[in-house]
Structures are given as structure tokens and as C-alpha cells.
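Page 47, continued from p. 46.
Same chain as before, 146 aa.
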Amino acid sequence: MPDRKPKPDRPTPRKEKLCKACKRPFHWTQQNARDWDILKFCSEACSGHHAGEKDVALEAAILQLLAERQADGDRTRTICPSEAAKLVAGDPRNKSHADRRDWEALMEPARAAARRLVAKGQIVITQHSRPVDPATAKGPIRLRLC
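Result:
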């Protein structure tokens, strides 16, 4: 592989980038300075992630649950991402420990699915009934239709 040469005439901007997989922001660091122009992912885990059946199922489950809440006239009309994870993992009425591990493993993918739906303009992520930026939201979140 040829040596990489610095670009003396055009310095690399050190602005924030969004990860292509999880849609979270990541920042310039000295460690990734050499490859900053070509970086697309925030971590090795994200670079190895390819959207699969579970991701599509989680997005569909989120939209299905929100549509049901809307049709029922439920006052809150919001869901927690864990409800979609439980729906995709299996029967939510069965509360064994193995099943809990199954849906807990889907929590981060469910939050990522919610961020993708926000990027498409289909849902809104809220905290304390106020819309929040999905890239920086930490802690418990709720999802609702736009």
C-alpha cells in the first residue's frame, strides 16, 4: 500500500461526522486524524454491521405498535423501544429469563431502528414529552408518529 501523503494546501476540517450505521455523531481525534477523510463509521462494530432481517422487523414493529396506539385512541400514543424489541424477540407474555435476554439484546438495535425512522421522517423521539435530537438522546426515550 502506498504511503499516504498529507494535503498541505487543503487542511482537513475537524468537524463532527455522522456514523453511516447508527446515525450517531463522532468527533475528530488524534487517533483517527490520518484517516479522517475516509472514515464513515464511529466504531469497528458499526463498520461490520449490515442491516438484516431483525433491523427491518424492528422498524416494522415500531410502526405497527404506533399505528395500533393511534387507532385505539390511546392518550399517550407513544411506545418504548423495548416494546418493539419484545415483539420481535417473541411472545411478550412469557417472562422467563432467557426471553428477557433475547429482547434486551435487541434494545440497541431497536434504538438504531428508531433513529433510522426519524431520519426518514416517519417518527419522533421524545423525552419528557418533548422531541429530542436522536443522535444525542441518552436515557429513556419514547417514540411517536410525526
